[in-house]
Amino acid sequence: MFTWTETPLVDMWGQLRYLASSANVYSLLCGKLKSRRKLFFAESEELKLRSFEIAACIRQADEYYRAADSVSIVTQPLLQFYGAEALAKAVILANIEDKRLIDLRHHGLNTRPKTAPAVAETLNAYSNDPHAWVIEHEYAIAHDGVYPQLCRAVGDATPSNGTVFYLKELLRVIPDMATRFQRHYSEPSHCFYLSNSLEPDRDGRLRISFSSRENLEIIKQVFPEFTAQFEATADGFLSRDPIKDLPTFAACQEGTVAGRYLIRPLPCGIRESMPIIFAALFILSNVVRYKPAFWTTVIDGQATGSIAV
To answer: What is the pTM of this model?
Structure first.
């Protein structure tokens, strides 16, 4: 459901709290409640149990976010992550028929170097040297649990076990962070504001046009494929050959505030903002929980001003 509003958080939670009732969740999932859903479950006792689990997750998420609003950034990311995880479980249960709450007992992300054999030695050295800690280098490793199922639920690529995510590279592909990222790091974000709807022209060639605020030379640095596969235009690029969809090296994402962006997916193929932000929140929550002294230096801006990002 999409609503034009000047109070998005209030309205969003108003809708979510409606689904804190298992009866309302049941009506939504079996199609009795008007929605844009395409997946409907058969009415059954199993659906009643699934609906109860979803409602319980939403109620718990509500409590976590209320608690997060009552504390400072010293502990806030930890509460926000657990709220996000509760909502992620609700998303999974509502969209994947072969999963139930008992299957979602692990985060699906961890920080154990041995679970990423390809870079275990490097991660282990970093983890054991507090002098080397930098907030941008904090990481998460994909494993079984909530995270890969969330990716699956939103139609994204599912990361293989051992895939490593670094905080800075996650921030780089969040559309709403694009301007702030570029200003703070003096590096290109991987999100660029579009000015068209990415539909083929009458000849079947795909035209990609960008806002005048974007620099096409920087876009070509992030997407070198444009040079080989597209022709340059005044405000973007035009495919040399007829194509219906974006090539896999690019994806279109809506910013949560406003606007449509072309992004470069993570190397593992993940492109949707929901799993990207979830992974970033996990990393921050781990720093808060296990590295409180380091987190305090980040908050105080003793080394960098990255806390502003």
So the answer is: 0.93
